[in-house]
Specification:
385 residues, alpha/beta, OB fold (Dihydrolipoamide Acetyltransferase, E2P), 7-stranded mixed sheet, 30% helix, 26% strand, binds S-adenosyl-L-homocysteine
């Protein structure tokens, strides 16, 4: 049963934060709104299945970020008010993991007693800039990343001890240094201050490593639903060669490897490729290989070398795929393409191109990965005519 949430939902920072654009609707209304949006954009390609939503659409975000700053002498933590440098103070949020929110509040209190200065990104002085908390939903492991403007961490040991003393559920703490003038949260350098420096989480029958920077879906409960649908649409029998394009840390490809002959993953970010290889070993999977590079270029080379693929699963970023990728995909001519997309607009554009290349759309499944926000994820299955 989908849960109802009251209109406006009583969030005190609904307008200022801007994160939950659909909060003035009940959850049923939100699901309907997303269904209509996907039908409007993708309905011309085929029947759109009923959107899959959450039973309890609350506290689903297992990745929580807070900016630290100062307001009238006091340390504050929360989110930047859109297009400003003003921090909207937040102690708890209806979509964020509750343990993560509690840890951020404790860090703010400890910062005050340890006389740790928040970073000021106008004068570029001070120390604590952001806190990022990531939690493994199925493992319960928690990583805290303290993003600081500079490296020397006064009273580091006692600060870490005090934090872990209050939150023994924390399994690792990393200091990340970001002294640059940038809107990116994380800088280049990480120093592990407590534990292993990463956490693990499980999806279906695989376990994955999550490092401070690695891409990992923020809603683990619905990720299981999304990946489950992607696997169902791949319809693997054990004989297939599968390409996992835009593979990130190899999550979908490794789940597919258990049901296929061979998996080849390609991903632009070399750190994610390293994690994907590590995840393969961690799960004892020997029939999956991962390569760094542009997915389009990689597939063009594969097509030129006369290599074959039976199934391609693709999960590009919001901008969607590009001509080169889609053309090389058509040349490789897999029997089946499963397209996972977080943006139905670019998905519609790419599907139109694949239709011209001799594919037909079989199934369209929207999934509500981000309740209360306007975002909607879709999985589409295409087969060669
Ligand atoms: N399938 C993964 C990751 C999806 S996010 C998962 O579900 O976890 C999209 C990924 O595409 C990111 O990891 C990003 O680094 C990667 N990417 C972006 N542009 C790319 C390109 N041109 N070629 C290959 N990978 C790309």
């Amino acid at each position: 049963m989908a849960m109802k949430t009251a209109p406006g939902n009583g969030c005190p920072v609904y307008k200022k934060c801007g994160g939950c654009q659909l909060q003035n609707m009940t959850y049923e209304e939100q699901l309907h709104h997303k269904q209509v949006k996907v039908i409007r954009l993708l309905g011309k390609f085929g029947r759109v299945n009923q959107i899959l939503g959450m039973d309890v659409p609350l506290h689903y975000r297992c990745k929580v970020q807070a900016a630290f700053g100062r307001d009238r002498g006091q340390i504050v933590s929360g989110v930047y008010q859109s297009s400003t440098h003003k921090i909207v103070p937040i102690d708890s949020c209806m979509i964020e993991d509750e343990a993560a929110d509690a840890i951020i509040v404790t860090i703010r209190k400890l910062a005050k007693s340890f006389k740790i200065k928040p970073f000021d990104d106008v004068s570029m002085t001070g120390f604590l800039r952001h806190v990022l908390v990531r939690k493994g939903y199925y493992t319960g492991q928690i990583m805290v990343v303290l993003v600081t403007g500079s490296e020397p961490f006064p009273s580091c040991r006692s600060f870490i001890n005090a934090l872990v003393g209050r939150h023994p559920e924390i399994t690792t703490i990393v200091q990340n240094i970001n002294g640059k003038f940038t809107s990116l949260v994380l800088g280049e350098k990480n120093i592990v201050r407590y534990g292993q420096g990463y956490i693990e989480d499980s999806i279906l029958d695989c376990t994955f490593r999550i490092s401070p920077k690695s891409f990992y879906q923020v809603n683990p409960q619905m990720t299981t639903v999304l990946y489950g649908k992607a696997l169902e649409f791949m319809a693997l029998t054990g004989a297939e060669t599968v390409i996992d394009a835009y593979c990130g840390t190899g999550t979908i490809g490794l789940l597919a490897a258990r049901k296929a002959k061979r998996v080849i993953g390609v991903e632009l970010n070399p750190d994610a490729v390293r994690d994907a290889k590590w995840n393969a070993r961690r799960n004892g999977i020997e029939n999956a290989e991962f390569f760094p590079g542009d997915a389009g270029e990689f597939m063009t080379e594969m097509a030129a070398a006369g290599e074959q693929a039976d199934v391609v699963i693709m999960d590009p970023p919001r901008a969607g795929s590009d001509r080169r990728f889609l053309d090389s995909l058509a040349t490789l001519a897999p029997k089946r393409i499963v397209y996972v997309s977080c943006n139905p607009e670019t998905l519609a554009r790419d599907l139109k191109h694949l239709l011209l290349k001799g594919y037909r759309v079989n199934r369209i499944q929207p999934v509500d990965m981000f309740p209360h926000t306007e975002h909607v994820e879709s999985v589409v299955c295409l087969t060669r005519k």
